[in-house]
Amino acid sequence: IREAQRTAPSIIYIPHIHLWWEAVGATLKGTFTTLLENIPTFAPVLLLATSDVCHADLPEEIKELFMNDYEEVFKIQLPNNDERRMFFEDLIVNEAAKPPASKNTDWQTLEVLPVAPPPKPQELTEEEIRELEEQEEDTLRELRFFLRDVTHRLAVDRRFRAFTKPVDPEEVPDYAAVIKQPMDLSAVLSKIDFHQYLTAGDFLKDIDLICSNALEYNPDKDPGGRLIRHRACTLRDTAYAIVREEMDKDFEERCEEIQESRKKRGCSSSKYAPSYYHVMPKQNSVPGCKKTDPKCNEKTKMPAAPVDSSTPRSNGKLRFTRTSLEKVLNPLMA
Known about the structure:
- This is ATAD2 protein.
- With 334 residues, the chain is mostly helical.
- Helices cover 50% and strands 4% of the residues.
- Helix 10 packs antiparallel against helix 11.
């Protein structure tokens, strides 16, 4: 009864109230009547009860709940044969005899509604955006640690020395005319430092680029070219094997979600990415290096690295220098 008052308008339905009244005790009867009396007269709550006993034969407590004078008692007579026939005739003879309506016909009569537009993304507050960027940066930092480790393992492998630094255009003048998008492991490391990889898939695309450049520039005609091609394919397979074996699939999916989220937010780069000018050392000059000094490289102002005479050549031109990784990186680290 209290729930009916709380959810009004409502109906309190008691079928066969005379049987129920005989079955319950005096305490429940008193509680029941008290709760009903406490319902205000203006409350939209209807008490509906049925009984097979005439109103005059009901207990006095029940008769007081339903007053004849207020037209609260309705007597329903049993239907006779004519009334039953009138009720069921239309249902059985007419409605039941009709074939069911075709679903296709009903479908064609329905109005074709336009597709609802996707819901607008929830607007984040500045604090929520800051927390989201910090969470994303924590994940991408772990990615960079992993990619640096993979790149270092590839760079120290003697088989991949030819791919550790850019091809010298002075040694290979026609390289730029053949290869339009050069790539090497040192460039990969720079892209890692500048937060340009949001997924391991982006990293592997540059590894694929190193391999495809080597295959495009080095024809499969001489032993030197075949060796470079073989090592380029090995580099690619090794990188893929390390990433597939050591990177958790859920972590890569998380990175892809971050990449997609930044695209939707219009974030081309992270505010945590370092500036190029703050990371790269100044290369205006090197103490003790003169332009006339043949041992000084004019473009980088760094001491020129020695060239290994065993490097594969084609038509008398050096394709890839085979200097050791230490000789290449030591001047850069200095």
